[in-house]
Amino acid sequence: MKTAVQFLALRTIVRGYALLGDPYAGVMALSPNRDPYALYEKVRARGDLVRSRMGAYVSPSREICDSVLRDNRFITATFDEASMVPITLVRDGEKVVNPVQDSFLMKNPPDHTRLRRLVQPFFTPRALKDRTESIRRIVANHLDGLGDRFDLVSDFASQVPIQVIADLLGIPDGHQDTFARWGSALAETLDGVWSHKQLKNLHTTISEYNDFIDVLIEERRRAPQDDIVSHLVTRHADLSREDLVATTGLLLFAGFETTVNLIGNGVLKAFENPHTVAPLAQSPEYAEGFVEEVLRLDPPVQYTIRWPKERLELGGVSLAAGTPVMLVLAAANRDPRVFDNPSAFDPARSNAREHLAFSAGIHYCIGAGLSRIEGAVALHELFKRFPGLAQDGPVARRRSRLIRGALRLPVRTNETKRSLAVRQS
Ligand code: HEM
């Protein structure tokens, strides 16, 4: 009951401030069907570091976002620490581990450094090179199973990254749909928990995930294989249960909830820019540049937040310790001081890689290289297989403001019977 009242108060305050034009509340209250980029441009017109009446600051500037992310006087905080509505769940006297909030994504040095180091070896350029062939196979297998009408997101874009990360972790096949459901529930809460229903859904999801991963951890302890979970339980046997469950969960959910949207946003960009389809289908190198431009122009992670741990000066403003600074990565990626004609989609743009879609500094995305390969292979092979792919109904958007992407995107292949016969012969 207490939380229901807290949620109502929170929603009312945020919506009220959003109506008054507050930048922080504006982002938080944005409806999934509205164009966030128009709002970010309004913020940009007000400056590089805009004060919110909710006690936060918002930055659309690439320079400020980048400098904050690389500055160790700024730290991350969990929802509970940031004194939003507490969301921690305790079951039978034991904390149920939240794979996002309790993971190293939300930790600061030295814990962050210690935990990130344990899994870093699986994401080196060498390790990724070894994975590329298996990613190609996964993509080809999923393409083989598609009919002439399908949902791009649930039938393809989410299947590929789920299988890639599940393989890396050592999770057997057959859980795709469950992971997709858990992933959506977690992603929805990344920018805050706004209702009692959402909190209950989150608690059910993390309880189910804890039960699931405990079984796998036990199996891998008994019979280790060549995967991340086995590596953690055998080579780092002193790791606490909380760190083990959170680290594997972070990799699992960060591994697909983001990449699914890179693929989905990429397909939408190809539909909006039909001249890109032929080169995308013909050239793997073009696909790499295409992916970089999608990451810049329509990034799956739209913003992140940091808090100064001491009073400091930023962009000419004196910030008190603990003031939230919302870094709008998606707006920084359109900073006209860095990117010419920033709202145009140009896969040949020479400095697209200066985007902040993967953040920067110590929390720079550990899976950046992996998702770049997945995105480029998936988009290249998809349009190579179905050059006539077209939208076949309205897009339904994800409900999160932090994660941007399609939840459903109906498509048809437009393949004639003849071209199908040629392909099969
Ligand atoms: C297009 C796909 C992806 C995007 C846009 C993306 C974006 C991001 C961003 C923005 C952050 C940092 C957030 C912050 O600074 O607060 C991050 C961190 C992270 N990402 Fe990704 N990510 C993607 C794919 C992946 C994949 C495939 C994996 C795993 C296999 C992954 C694992 C992680 C992890 C573990 C962190 C935490 C890093 C740390 O705190 O040190 N991500 N990601």
UniProtKB/TrEMBL annotation:
Classification via SUPFAM superfamilies: Cytochrome P450
Membrane-spanning intervals of the chain: none
A Pfam family hit: p450
Family the UniProt entry places it in: Belongs to the cytochrome P450 family.
GO terms for biological process, alphabetical: cholesterol catabolic process
Keyword Lyase carried by entry: no
Superkingdom per UniProt: Bacteria
Matches recorded under PROSITE patterns: CYTOCHROME_P450
One MF term in the entry's GO annotations: iron ion binding
Protein's name in the database: Cytochrome P450
Record flagged with keyword Metal-binding: yes
Gene3D superfamilies tied to this protein: Cytochrome P450
Keywords in alphabetical order: Heme, Iron, Metal-binding, Monooxygenase, Oxidoreductase
Taxonomic lineage from the root: Bacteria, Bacillati, Actinomycetota, Actinomycetes, Pseudonocardiales
